[in-house]
């Protein structure tokens, strides 16, 4: 069985091709999907990639969350399909109310780009199963509106229900409340995060490690986790 993972392109998407490449490196078949379509083309999982959809007008991800294909994404998510939102894709997920809270301008008001340490808080999702809880990974980060916010009662709820998927470690790069870098839904099939795992999947192109420059491939685990999740669903 070849797992087929769709990557949606929106006007202003920048990292859709990178996500497709990451899917291919992980051993699945990437399928290009278009924001204006009402067809997921029979894929087994979906990625909403990073970028600046619709120029980040209104709020980042707000217009994209209303794109025709998001109706299909919401329906698929409700049925348990693995959905990953990366950076702008995470913003789409919160705007579409598939994940709680919101994302605002970084507290220092500047675009940030860094190789970011993350702590895995939930290793029981469709996109994190190859990791272990408490594991530290390094994933590239690049955003201007990555500050995660939510009401205190919402924060308490997601903490209590184990819905924090990742926290920033070492430094909080954008002022996110409680150092939240990524979330999951209660079903564990929908995950969103601000850092970019697709940029840490191939030796020579990832973050620096103690072994060698640009050798970090921690992001590959997201995609191999999804492949394993699809296999479990199909079994």
Description:
This protein is of the alpha/beta class and 235 residues long. 23% of the residues lie in helices and 24% in strands. It has 5 helices and 11 strands. It has a 9-stranded mixed sheet, with helices on both faces. α2 links the parallel β3 and β4 (83-86). α1 (16-26) packs across α5. It starts with a strand and ends with a helix. 53% of the residues are buried. The model has no long low-confidence stretch (mean pLDDT 96).
- C-alpha termini separation: 11 Å
H-E order: EHEEHEHEEEEHEEEH
Please state the average pLDDT score.
96
Number of helices: 5
Subunit structure: Part of the FGAM synthase complex composed of 1 PurL, 1 PurQ and 2 PurS subunits.
Protein name: Phosphoribosylformylglycinamidine synthase subunit PurQ
Pathway: Purine metabolism; IMP biosynthesis via de novo pathway; 5-amino-1-(5-phospho-D-ribosyl)imidazole from N(2)-formyl-N(1)-(5-phospho-D-ribosyl)glycinamide: step 1/2
EC number: 6.3.5.3, 3.5.1.2
Question: In a nutshell, what does this entry contain?
Answer:
With 235 residues, the protein is an alpha/beta fold. Helices cover 23% and strands 24% of the residues.
Write the layout of secondary structure elements.
Elements: E1 4-9, H1 16-26, E2 29-34, E3 45-48, H2 68-78, E4 83-86, H3 88-95, E5 102-104, E6 112-120, E7 136-143, E8 147-149, H4 152-160, E9 164-168, E10 180-184, E11 190-193, H5 220-234
Parallel strand pairs: 1-2, 1-3, 3-4, 4-11
Antiparallel strand pairs: 5-8, 6-7, 6-9, 9-10, 10-11
Helix pairs in contact: 1-5
């Amino acid at each position: 069985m070849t797992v087929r993972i769709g990557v949606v392109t929106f006007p202003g998407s920048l990292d859709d091709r990178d996500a497709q490449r990451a899917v291919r490196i992980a051993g699945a078949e990437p399928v290009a999907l278009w924001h204006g379509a009402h067809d997921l083309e029979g894929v087994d999982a979906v990625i909403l990639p990073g970028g600046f959809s619709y120029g980040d007008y209104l709020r980042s991800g707000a217009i994209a969350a209303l794109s025709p294909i998001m109706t299909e994404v919401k329906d698929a998510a409700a049925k348990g399909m693995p959905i990953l939102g990366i950076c702008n894709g995470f913003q789409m997920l919160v705007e579409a109310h598939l994940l709680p809270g919101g994302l605002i301008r970084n507290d220092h008001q500047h675009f940030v780009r860094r190789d970011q340490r993350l702590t895995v808080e939930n290793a029981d999702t469709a996109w994190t199963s190859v990791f272990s809880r408490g594991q530290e990974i390094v994933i590239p980060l690049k955003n201007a509106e990555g500050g995660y916010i939510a009401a205190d009662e919402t924060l308490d709820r997601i903490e209590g229900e184990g819905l924090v998927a990742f926290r920033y470690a070492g430094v909080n790069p954008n002022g996110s409340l409680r150092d939240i870098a990524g979330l999951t839904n209660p079903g564990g099939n929908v995950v969103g995060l601000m850092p970019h795992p697709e940029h840490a999947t191939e030796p020579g192109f990832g973050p620096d490690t103690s072994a060698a420059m640009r050798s970090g491939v921690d992001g590959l685990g997201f995609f191999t986790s999804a492949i394993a999740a699809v296999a479990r669903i199909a079994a």
